[in-house]
Amino acid sequence: MQLFTKEQKERLIKNHQYNDEHRGTDKEKSFPAVVKLFNPTGIGTWYLSELDPETNIAFGLCDLGFPELGSVSVAELQEVRGWGGLGIERDKFFTPTKMSELRT
């Protein structure tokens, strides 16, 4: 399964580009989570709001038992294999949500 749809990836990149341009100013924004990824065989949930297309590093709420805002390598998420060889999956029914409203 692809971790992002084309539209989600475009939105993640657009959010990153906006914040990259305005980093450290009063125009910097906190974007809602665009996509939710999860580990179907164990712990791990990622609510992502930005993606740097050059480094393939995403930003969002990462919960590996203790939720925190931070960055994660999309390439590393794609390599994860759990029980039965299952990889990280995208929640197809997730709708963009403000970070402050997320329940992990």
Secondary-structure topology with pairs:
Layout: H1 6-22, E1 35-38, E2 45-52, E3 57-63, E4 67-73, H2 74-79, E5 89-90
Antiparallel strand pairs: 1-2, 1-5, 2-3, 3-4
Describe this structure in words.
The protein is an alpha+beta fold and 104 residues long. Helices cover 22% and strands 27% of the residues. The chain has helices at residues 6-22, 74-79; strands spanning 35-38, 45-52, 57-63, 67-73, 89-90. A hairpin with a 3-residue loop joins strand 3 and strand 4 (67-73). The mean pLDDT is 92.
Number of helices: 2
What would the average pLDDT be, to the nearest integer?
92
In terms of DSSP E residues, the strand content is: 25-35%
* Series of secondary-structure elements, N-terminal to C-terminal: HEEEEHE
Distance between the termini: 22 Å
Mind describing the biggest β-sheet? Answer: 5 strands, antiparallel
Q: Which structural class do the helices and strands define?
A: alpha+beta
Number of strands: 5
Given as residue ranges, the uncertain stretches (5+ residues, pLDDT < 50) are none
Gross geometry: globular
Estimate the helix proportion, in percent: 10-25%
The gyration radius over C-alpha positions equals 13 Å
Strand order within the widest beta sheet: 4-3-2-1-5
Task: Name its key features.
single chain, 104 residues, alpha+beta, 2 helices, 5 strands, 22% helix
How would you summarize what this structure contains?
With 104 residues, this protein is an alpha+beta fold. It is built from 2 helices and 5 strands; from the N terminus they run αββββαβ.
